[in-house]
Specification:
Length: about 60
């Protein structure tokens, strides 16, 4: 996707475990993660992605 090095999944499934993508520090949520395309699912994935992104940032910069 663009010049980030992200690869778009052809077959939806476990490639977004913990909302991780193929690029360290980039997390995915919502329609990009696949069906079912529902707001409630996207909200839940967004929460997981946000928590995991914060944990990732804290590991890189423990003073955050």
């Amino acid at each position: 996707m663009l010049e980030t090095g992200l690869r778009q999944a052809k077959n939806f499934g476990s490639q977004f475990k913990d909302q991780l993508t193929s690029v360290p520090g980039i997390f995915a949520a919502g329609d990009i993660c696949g069906p079912p395309w529902q707001v409630a699912k996207a909200v839940g994935e967004g929460c997981v992605a946000g928590i995991n992104a914060a944990d990732y940032a804290k590991k890189l910069h423990p003073t955050l």
